[in-house]
Design a protein that fits this description.
Distance between the termini: 40 Å
Largest sheet: 7 strands, mixed
Number of helices: 0
Order of helices and strands: EEEEEEEEEEE
Structural class: mainly beta
Shape: globular
Oligomer: single chain
Amino acid sequence: QVQLVESGGGSAQAGGSLRLSCAASGPSSSMWCMGWFRQLPGKKREGVATIDSKDDKRGYADSVKGRFTISRDNVKNTLFLQMNSLKPEDTGLYYCATYQFYCWGKVDVDMDHWGKGIQVTVSS
């Protein structure tokens, strides 16, 4: 059974940075792809970034390219999201998720397991 626990959320000013972490437990075979998703106020949940375990192939949503960086530590089963140049429109609930297959650079993936989410608030 995969369990995911996000940390590192909180508040930041526009132009600032935050780093999200996700501690994962469970079989590695269920985590070939890991990713970050978010739900902005009044909108559907959307993919932010994904990363594959095999070759660290990454995928990003257009809205975060050049500002966010996803990485993972396969030994510690931890996922990270470094968020720089934050904007007020990045405010929302951020989720960590895993997929039993590779994402191949896509972010619109129907993931298998989800964390409970963590709030990120960016003020102008």
